[in-house]
Amino acid sequence: MTVTTKIDFRYRRVSQLEDITDLVEVLCPGNRNQQHAAARVLLELKTSQGPVASLSHLEKEHDISRRTLQRTRAKLARLGLIEHVSLLNARYGGQHGWKLSSRMSTALRQLADRIDDWRRDTRQERREKDGVLVDLLR
């Protein structure tokens, strides 16, 4: 039996998340090395006071390969969990590096709000528009 590598955001799965190990298992299913690397990256950024210039020290400290760390960091950045801060960003006073981001949580909140708005909107013109849009999908 093969293990899927797709992120699993089923509502039951999400409602059972309790800690960081559950989170990284959802984000990196089927890859224990990436789960370990993701947990280490997220914990490192959570405990830091500002942007972390380099995450390469995690390779030596926690026996993570460079490739696994780079792929995991890229995946977390694409998902919007972490982001890179540039030297030119005045908000951080010349500091640069990686930090936790609120992009993913903001996007998920917006998605939930839009779903709720759509579900509550029962106007006749909305139903007609939805019908026309569904017909275009054929």
Q: Taking all residues together, what is the mean pLDDT? A: 91
With helices defined by DSSP (H or I, 4 residues minimum), what is the helix count?
7
As an assembly, this protein is: single chain
The CATH topology of the largest domain comes to Arc Repressor Mutant, subunit A
Count of individual beta strands: 2
Integer tally of domains? 2
Using the CA coordinates, give the radius of gyration.
20 Å
- Shape annotation: extended
Beta percentage is 5-15%
Query: Strand sequence of the main sheet, in spatial order?
Result: 1-2
Notes on the structure:
The chain has 138 residues and is mainly α. It has two domains: 1-101, Arc Repressor Mutant, subunit A; 102-138. The protein has seven helices and two strands; from the N terminus they run H-H-H-H-H-E-E-H-H. The protein has a two-stranded antiparallel ribbon with strand order 1-2. The protein is extended, with a radius of gyration of 20 Å. The model has no long low-confidence stretch (mean pLDDT 91).
